[in-house]
Amino acid sequence: MDPSNQKGGAKSVVKEEDDPTKDTVTYAVLGTKFDIDRRYEVIDPIGSGAYGVVVAAKDLEADEKEGETNLVAIKKIVKAFEHRVFSLRTYRELKIQRLLEHENVLGIKRIL
């Protein structure tokens, strides 16, 4: 997939200089930094809102032969612990998301 958006071809996902000594890779997406495990490769932004940014990524360690998909969504919640209200909101969202089971709702695979 092409990481360019429609506004003049500017890249919406930028992988920052890689440091092989770190366990994470840094991506800049829509003005938000994502420090994520090397097993994930960010493809495109999916959306952004008041609480964070969601990106599509490949799980480079998923075993497609066993029925796992290698495509995942990663959400970065900005300022999740800056205020008590934000912390409670983040906790509530994770708790509800964990309990939801519907074909149109992604489940939680990992919390990074």
Automatic annotation (TrEMBL):
The terms under GO molecular function for this entry are: ATP binding; protein kinase activity
Q: What is this protein called?
A: Protein kinase domain-containing protein
Provide the residue positions that the database annotates as binding ATP. 76
Q: What is the lineage of its organism?
A: Eukaryota, Sar, Alveolata, Ciliophora, Intramacronucleata
Q: Where is the Protein kinase domain?
A: 40-112
Is-annotated flag, keyword ATP-binding? yes
Report the source organism. Strombidium inclinatum
**InterPro entries (UniProt xref):** Kinase-like_dom_sf, MAPK, Prot_kinase_dom, Protein_kinase_ATP_BS
Q: Which UniProt keywords apply?
A: ATP-binding, Nucleotide-binding
Region Disordered: list its residue ranges.
1-20
